[in-house]
Amino acid sequence: MLTEGMFYDALRQGLWITVELSAPILSVALISGLVIGLFQALTSVQEMTLTFVPKLLAIGAVFWATMGFMTRTLLAYFDTTIVPLIAGS
């Protein structure tokens, strides 16, 4: 029997896992955006692709590097929280 407390606990845990999984990608996007913005301000280069391409490459590299961690975390969450709730255990 699914109670309201169990539902909110699973929701809270899912939101926290979302924060954990998105933190590396968002932090790299922020840092690379700041570095590129500083470079553009110092050199007066205002090229639009200069902001997009390096940030995209950095995000892709971090995503590729953390894919295993993301997969293990999501599988553990589903195996320990979501599947038992669906099965009614």
From TrEMBL:
The region annotated as signal peptide is none
Q: Which UniProt keywords apply?
A: Cell membrane, Cell projection, Cilium, Flagellum, Membrane, Transmembrane, Transmembrane helix
Instruction: Report how it sits in the membrane.
Output: Multi-pass membrane protein
Q: Can you say where in the cell this protein is located?
A: Cell membrane
Query: Any one cellular component term from GO for this entry?
Result: plasma membrane
Query: Quick one: a GO biological-process term for this protein?
Result: protein secretion
Query: Where would you find the membrane-spanning parts of this chain?
Result: 21-42, 48-67
Family label: Belongs to the FliQ/MopD/SpaQ family.
What is this protein called in UniProt?
Flagellar biosynthetic protein FliQ
Source species of the chain:
Palleronia marisminoris
- The UniProt gene name for this protein comes to fliQ
